[in-house]
Amino acid sequence: MEQKVRRYHELKQLQKETEQELSALRSEILEHFQEQGISELDVGEYRVRTIHQERKEYDDRKLYEALPDPGVWRLVSKADAQKIAGLIKLNVIPAEKLEGTFSIKQVTLVQVDKK
Fold first, then answer.
1. 94 three-state secondary structure
2. Could you count the other beta carbons within 10 Å of the beta carbon of residue 84?
3. Are 111 and 51 in contact (CB under 8 A)?
4. Which of 22, 60, 89, 104 gives a 20 to 30 Å CA spacing to 5?
5. Mean pLDDT of 76-93
6. Contact 76, 67 (CB under 8 A)
7. d(CA 50, CA 65)
8. Are 114 and 49 in contact (CB under 8 A)?
9. Whole-angstrom Cα distance, residue 73 to residue 89?
10. Which residues face 47 on adjacent strands?
């Protein structure tokens, strides 16, 4: 068991280091794209693209006020954008009822594919 715990710890440390390096590289790539005014670039055998997305960030208090039905609130339990989107798609919650309960956050993703 000690060997498993040790390996788990090593992998978590490696994961942390990898995520930090990925974050730094992502920032550098986005900075380069922004400086060049581009959204796609071929680099050697790789194609790099940036993808802009909008994500909804719900306010728990406003959402609770918009969904006073305890049965519906139990389905949501907290402001989880994916759950809420699913409930809207299933017509459990009307989208109009949620107006003003969220803010839109702009997110830029970096996608690197091998050609």
1. coil
2. 23
3. yes
4. 22
5. 79
6. yes
7. 37
8. no
9. 16
10. 42, 113
* Integer angstrom CA distances of residue 43 from 25, 28, 39, 49: 15, 15, 13, 11
The 8-class DSSP code of residue 72 comes to: H
Which tokens hold the place of 69?
A: 């039905």
Name the DSSP letter for residue 102: E
CA dist 43 and 65 (Å) reads 50
Query: What Cα–Cα distance (Å) separates residue 96 from each residue in 66, 67, 83?
Result: 10, 12, 16
- pLDDT for res 67: 73
Tokens of 85: 């989107």
The CB density around residue 77, as the number of other CB atoms within 10 Å, is 8
pLDDT at position 103, please? 87
